[in-house]
Amino acid sequence: MARQLPLPAVSPTQLYLSKPKLVEVLEWFDCDDPQYDPLPVFEHEGQWYLSDGHTRGFAAALAGEDTLCVERDETLREEFDFEAYLTCIDWCEEAGVQSIHDLHGRVVEQDTYERKWISRCQRLG
Asked: What distances in angstroms separate CA 23 from CA 1, 6, 8, 125, one per listed residue?
């Protein structure tokens, strides 16, 4: 069930955003009337985290939204390596990335995104 959470109440689980993906999202995203599928979130130790949808969440923040439309990610712990998400949470905390707004200055070109983020995540597996 979708609901609204205050934007600061939802933390990211990635350190960078892909510029080409952001450009693609901004092509369809209506900043005057943000409508998007709920972003998948999970709760861990009393804090909400994005499991996906970071680019759409960032677009909502750019549009000045105070809340995010979210939905609990019920499949996360069954279908994905939850320990990897916990490691990503640690990385974000270490880098000071605690909110969507902290991703400002972390939008990078695709090759940089793959080198700095995707490769780092792949080393977990």
From this structure: 29, 24, 23, 29
pLDDT lower than 70: segments of the chain: 76-80, 125
Q: What is the pLDDT of residues 77-95, one digit of tens each?
A: 666 678 899 999 999 999 9
Cα angle, residue 96 at apex, residues 116 and 88 outer, rounded to 5°: 50
Q: Structural domains in the chain?
A: 3-122 (3.90.1530)
Tokens 């998007």 belong to 36
Structure tokens at 53: 């949808």
Cα(4)–Cα(123) distance, integer angstroms: 34
Burial of 122 (0-12, 13-18, 19+ CB in 10 A): exposed
